[in-house]
Amino acid sequence: MHLYDNDFLNINYYTYMNLDLVGKKAIVCGSTQGLGLASAIELSLLGADLTLIARNEEKLQAALTHLDTSKNQQHGYLVADFSDLNKVKAAAERYLEKATVAHILVNNTGGPPGGSVMNATVEEFLSAFNNHLICNHVLSKALVPGMKSAGYGRIINVISTSVKQPIHGLAVSNTVRAAVANWSKTLASELGPFGITVNNVLPGFTQTVRADYVIQKKATDSGKSAEEVMKELVAEIPAGRIGQPSEFGAAVAFLCSPAAAYINGINLPVDGGRLACL
Questions:
Q1: Domains, the chain, with CATH or none
Q2: Phi and psi, residue 254, nearest 5°
Q3: Given strand 267-270, what is the order of strands in its sheet?
Q4: Do 155 and 255 touch, CB atoms closer than 8 A?
Q5: Per 3-state DSSP, what percentage of the chain is helix, strand, and coil (rounded to 5)?
Q6: Between β-strands 49-54 and 25-29, what pairing exists: parallel, antiparallel or unpaired?
Q7: Rg for the chain, CA atoms, rounded
Q8: How far apart are CA 123 and CA 141, in angstroms?
Q9: pTM for this one?
Q10: For the segment 234-265, what is each residue's pLDDT rounded down to a tens digit?
Q11: Listed residue (148, 169, 142) closest to 85, CA to CA
């Protein structure tokens, strides 16, 4: 613990890196693989009790085996397909039947298919809005009352660097992610007075199934090999490599911790410096 004395203001500032999440309950969506699972693992390492949500029960059961239990954490899961809004609502209701509060909500859903704006169908836009914006909203509405009562809340939305710089060939995703980012910023302003923060974490090029999909699509569209596309993508990253899911998960876990209490309403890129904009 460090003590800083400010004689002019006669205020003592106590600062410490409190990352302890023991006793905190967290819900992580889309958590059977990739960024969702990585975020859940990091939260468990800080001591949180995890509830995983995804559509495949077998994969959920397997994901539970990766979570830390050294601090007597109790982990579980709920099955819900984010393409069915009623199932998402039912999952939230089932959770609240057993627990009065979730201190942490990580909204994460697989990205929509790629393609240009003019080739996108109305159905693709509607599906993406439901899977991302509407499901995020439904879960937040269900869980925020408990966060308010606890005086502690963290809502993290896993979106995309496209909210700062649109990504070529991902028209539907670019559109929907921007909507989520603005919803999140508005929510952050409304919930800040209750000890609840709302932040977005923006994954860059990270070693996930989604990245494999993007590489293969770029290769198909350009006529290049997947290896050539990979080399070109890495060349744009100052870090000189693609990211690991655990590095992304660590950023999510930090924003969920008490140490991040004064960080609210931000878009945090975890991209190795790839974005050219601030």
A1: 21-204+244-265 (3.40.50.720), 205-242 (no CATH)
A2: -60, -45
A3: 76-79, 49-54, 25-29, 104-107, 153-158, 196-203, 267-270
A4: no
A5: 45, 20, 35
A6: parallel
A7: 19
A8: 25
A9: 0.92
A10: 999 999 999 999 999 999 999 999 999 999 99
A11: 142
